[in-house]
Design goal:
By secondary structure, this protein is mainly β. The protein is 0% helix and 52% strand. It is globular and about 45 Å long.
Length: 119
């Protein structure tokens, strides 16, 4: 029903920046919210940021507040995560997800994109 494809990951030096993108598509596309999660090697997946699709209201984990900015292009059905002042602890696979509103959960996930921050 919904396909999510992340891009923009890579290797950067500490203090550098990256912008992640997530393209959403699908038949009868509908979204209540979209978000970014990350999973470091050997650790559980954790919440990073989310945005209400229609209103644009945002939420951030304490660990990324002030450094990351989530945004969306309502027309293009694309989600972005601007990542500034990157730290080695930001190294993880970053996943985008969509809450369609049909259930009280994150319904679909992308395949993820690797972000590596070197010290």
């Amino acid at each position: 029903q919904v396909q999510l494809v992340e891009s923009g990951g890579g290797v950067v030096q500490a203090g550098g920046s990256l912008r992640l993108s997530c393209a959403a598509s699908g038949r009868s596309f509908s979204a209540f919210a979209m978000g970014w999660f990350r999973q470091a090697l050997g650790k559980e997946r954790e919440f990073a940021s989310s945005i209400r699709w229609n209103s644009g209201r945002t939420n951030y984990a304490d660990s990324v507040t002030g450094r990351f900015t989530i945004s969306r292009d309502y027309v293009k059905n694309e989600l972005y995560l601007q990542m500034n002042s990157l730290k080695p602890e930001d190294t993880a696979v970053y996943y985008c997800a969509i809450d369609t509103g049909a259930t009280t959960r994150w319904d679909y996930w992308g395949q993820g994109t690797q972000v590596t921050v070197s010290s």
